[in-house]
Design a protein that fits this description.
Blueprint: E1 6-9, E2 12-15, H1 18-25, H2 43-58, H3 66-76, E3 80-84, E4 90-94, H4 104-122, H5 126-133
Antiparallel strand pairs: 1-2, 3-4
Length: 136
């Protein structure tokens, strides 16, 4: 199944490509339909997130590698799944940030919370984080 893309113009949805136009044209006038929507992920924003991670890694001395630091930040930001082991132990698994697993809205929340965690845990001012990211 292909995905139809639409743009909102005031109170109307406008197809963003030919395939989406075909999909919308097939819906009879006055017909009520159910849609599920999400904003496509922004690759540039994804790259900016990794620039934030690399900058954060440089601001601390505990973590040595980016993946471990990212996992910790993701969990600390509240984006994790809880796993209960057969012995009753609780494990926290960071949510995947892949394009298929996390939509743009959730990714923006993760990004914002990641900045908050860096500020809270490493004594960095928000303005300094924003200044670092200006060059990305």
């Amino acid at each position: 199944m292909r995905t139809a893309f639409v743009k909102r113009t005031w109170s109307f949805l406008k197809p963003a490509d030919e395939f989406s136009e075909e999909v919308i044209r097939k819906i009879p006038a006055g017909e009520v339909v159910r849609i599920t929507w999400s904003r496509p992920r922004n690759y540039k924003f994804h790259k900016r997130y990794f620039a934030l991670l690399k900058a954060g890694l440089e601001l601390q001395d505990f973590f040595d590698d980016l993946d471990t630091f990212r996992y910790w930040l993701t969990i600390k930001s509240g984006f994790f799944n809880t796993i209960i082991t057969p012995s009753g132990d609780t494990l926290l698994r960071p949510k995947s940030i892949s394009f298929a697993s996390m939509d743009e809205d959730e990714f923006e929340k993760l990004y914002s919370k990641t900045i908050d965690v860096i500020i809270e845990n490493f004594g960095v001012a928000k303005e300094d984080v924003e200044r670092i990211l200006e060059f990305v």
